[in-house]
Design brief:
- By secondary structure, the protein is mainly alpha-helical.
- The protein has two domains: 77 residues; 64 residues, no CATH class.
- It contains six helices and two strands; from the N terminus they run βαααβααα.
């Protein structure tokens, strides 16, 4: 299943922000940040070890809250499909064609790996293919994969 947080959808962003604010208030993150800030001004630089540990602990807690909110707001982009070697073969070929197209556009660095991957997916002589042939092959693979899914 493919998931990701879509930031262009305002409803998902609002939900993410609501969850983060709710969790921050529940765990009193703002109060803890203010307390740590006051202690850093009081203690000066370099700060004592206990204060450094508090800052790291608070940072980790804030990261956990953000990750939790992100997981709650993910949008499912495609349905689950059963695994089969045939579907995997078409899936791999699609990715090989996408990489070859990027290689032809000059957007890749490690062309050797891309060519080897294309050869493993039974794309014959991938360096000799034109951009039109690559796009046709990509469309064909996407259609075949869709038929099987």
């Amino acid at each position: 299943m493919s998931c990701r947080l879509i930031t262009s959808l305002q409803g998902l962003v609002d939900e993410y922000n609501r969850i983060v604010r709710e969790q921050f208030s529940q765990h009193r993150i703002v109060e803890q940040l203010n307390a740590v800030d006051n202690m850093t001004h009081y203690c000066g630089f370099p700060s004592p070890n206990f204060l450094q540990a508090m800052i790291i602990k608070l940072y980790r807690q804030m990261t956990e809250i953000r990750v939790h909110a992100e997981k709650k707001c993910r949008k499912i982009l495609r349905p689950d499909s059963d695994y089969s070697p045939t579907i995997q073969m078409w899936y791999d070929r699609i990715h090989a064609y996408l990489q070859l197209i990027r290689m032809k556009e000059g957007k890749t660095k490690n062309t050797g790996n891309i060519i080897r991957f294309a050869m493993r997916t039974n794309i014959q002589d991938p360096t000799a293919l034109t951009m039109e042939e690559l796009k046709d092959g990509l469309r064909y693979c996407q259609i075949r994969k869709r038929e099987l899914s």
